[in-house]
Amino acid sequence: MSISQADQSPLVSLRDVRFAYGEREVLRGIDLTVHRGQVVAIMGGSGCGKTTLLRLIGGQLRASSGAVEVEGRDLAHMPRSDLYALRRRMGMLFQFGALFTDMTVFDNVAFPLREHTTLPSGMVRDLVMMKLQAVGLRGAHALKPAELSGGMARRVALARAVALDPMLIMYDEPFAGLDPISLGVIGRLIRRLNDALGASSIMVTHDVHESLLIVDYIYFVSEGRIVAHGTPDEIRASTDPFVHQFVHAEADGPVAFHYPAPPIDGLLQGRRP
Ligand SMILES: Nc1ncnc2c1ncn2[C@@H]1O[C@H](COP(=O)(O)OP(=O)(O)OP(=O)(O)O)[C@@H](O)[C@H]1O
Question: Which keywords accompany this UniProt record (predicted)?
Answer without folding.
Answer: ATP-binding, Cell membrane, Membrane, Nucleotide-binding, Transport
